[in-house]
C-alpha cells in the first residue's frame, strides 16, 4: 500500500509517499505559491502526486478550520487566501478515485507525534504549538477530541487577560496575544527593533543580555498561565509543546519547572514534553489518517 501524506502550509507544501509501515518512499517540499489560491494549490498537489506514480490513499493536513468528515476547509488561514469553503476531499477523490482524509494542521501534527514522535507511547495528552499564534489539540485514547462543532482545542483563544490586548480574532486578552512567538518578538523589539525573531532573541539571551532575559522570563510566565489553566481543566498526564521556538531546550525546562509551582498539588504530576517531529509532524499526521 502506498499512501500520500500532504501538509499545506502558508510558505511551503510537504508531500511524501509512504508504505503502510510509515517508511518514506518519496519526499518533496515546494513553495505553496499561496497567492494563486486554493484550487491552484490542489491542482499542483495532484500533479506532484502523479509524478510519483499510483497511490492507494491520500491524507492532507492544512491550516484553517477543517470539517474533517466532509474534508472541507470551513474557514481558511489568512496566510493562504481563497481557501474558505475549499472542498479538498472531493477534488482529490474525484481525480484519483481513492480514499482521501483531510485534517486541521495542528490536529494532524498531534497525530503525527502520537504515531511517530514523542507521543508514540501516549494515549492521552494535550498538544500545543507556539508560533505566529498558538494552536492546540486534545488527544484522548490516541484520537482527536473534536467537541460539538468539530473545532475543540483552540487554546490560543482562551482569555488569559480580561479586557486585555485585542487579538487578531477580535476578542480581547487571548492567550496567543501574550504567549505566542509573535508576542515574544513584539516585546523584544521594544528593546531593540533588530530583535526580529526567536533565533536572535535567544542568542542575546544566552549572551547574558539582562533586558532580554527579563522579556523571556515574562513571556514564559504568560505561557505558564495558560498551561496551568489547561492542567486544572483537563488534568492531563502529559502536555506536548511544539513550534520552532521550543527547540530552545531552556524554554521547556523553565516551563516544566514553573508549571508545577502554579497548579494545585494534586495536579502537579504532569509531564511537559517537547515535540520531536519538527516541521514534518503535519505531513506524518496526514499519513496516519490512513494507518
UniProtKB/TrEMBL annotation:
Belongs to the ROK (NagC/XylR) family. It comes from Pseudogracilibacillus auburnensis. It comes from the Bacteria. Pfam families: ROK (PF00480). InterPro entries: ATPase_NBD, ROK. The keyword Transferase applies. Keywords: Kinase, Transferase. The keyword Transferase applies. One of its GO terms (molecular function) is kinase activity. This is Glucokinase-like ROK family protein.
Amino acid at each position: 500500500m502506498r499512501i500520500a501524506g500532504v501538509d499545506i502550509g502558508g510558505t511551503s507544501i510537504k508531500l511524501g509517499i509512504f508504505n503502510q509501515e510509515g517508511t518514506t518512499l518519496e519526499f518533496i517540499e515546494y513553495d505553496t505559491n499561496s497567492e494563486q489560491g486554493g484550487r491552484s494549490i490542489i491542482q499542483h498537489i495532484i500533479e506532484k502526486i502523479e509524478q510519483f506514480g499510483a497511490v492507494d490513499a491520500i491524507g492532507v493536513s492544512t491550516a484553517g478550520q477543517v470539517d474533517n468528515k466532509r474534508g472541507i476547509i470551513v474557514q481558511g488561514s489568512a496566510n493562504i487566501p481563497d481557501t474558505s469553503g475549499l472542498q479538498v476531499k472531493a477534488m482529490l477523490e474525484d481525480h484519483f478515485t481513492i480514499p482521501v482524509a483531510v485534517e486541521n494542521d495542528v490536529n494532524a501534527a498531534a497525530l503525527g507525534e502520537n504515531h511517530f514522535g514523542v507521543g508514540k507511547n501516549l494515549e492521552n495528552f494535550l498538544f500545543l504549538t507556539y508560533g505566529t499564534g498558538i494552536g492546540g489539540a486534545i488527544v484522548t485514547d490516541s484520537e482527536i477530541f473534536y467537541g460539538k462543532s468539530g473545532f475543540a482545542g483552540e487554546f490560543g483563544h482562551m482569555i488569559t487577560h480580561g479586557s486585555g490586548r485585542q487579538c487578531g480574532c477580535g476578542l480581547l486578552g487571548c492567550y496567543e496575544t501574550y504567549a505566542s512567538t509573535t508576542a515574544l518578538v513584539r516585546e523584544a523589539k521594544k528593546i531593540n527593533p533588530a530583535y526580529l525573531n526567536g533565533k536572535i532573541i535567544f542568542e542575546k539571551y544566552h549572551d547574558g543580555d539582562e533586558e532580554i532575559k527579563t522579556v523571556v522570563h515574562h513571556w514564559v510566565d504568560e505561557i505558564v498561565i495558560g498551561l496551568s489553566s489547561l492542567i486544572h481543566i483537563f488534568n492531563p498526564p502529559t502536555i506536548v509543546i511544539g513550534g520552532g521556538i521550543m527547540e530552545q531546550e531552556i524554554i521547556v525546562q523553565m516551563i516544566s519547572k514553573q508549571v508545577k509551582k502554579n497548579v494545585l498539588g494534586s495536579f502537579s504530576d504532569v509531564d511537559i514534553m517537547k515535540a520531536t517531529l519538527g516541521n514534518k509532524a503535519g505531513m506524518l499526521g496526514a499519513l496516519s489518517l490512513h494507518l
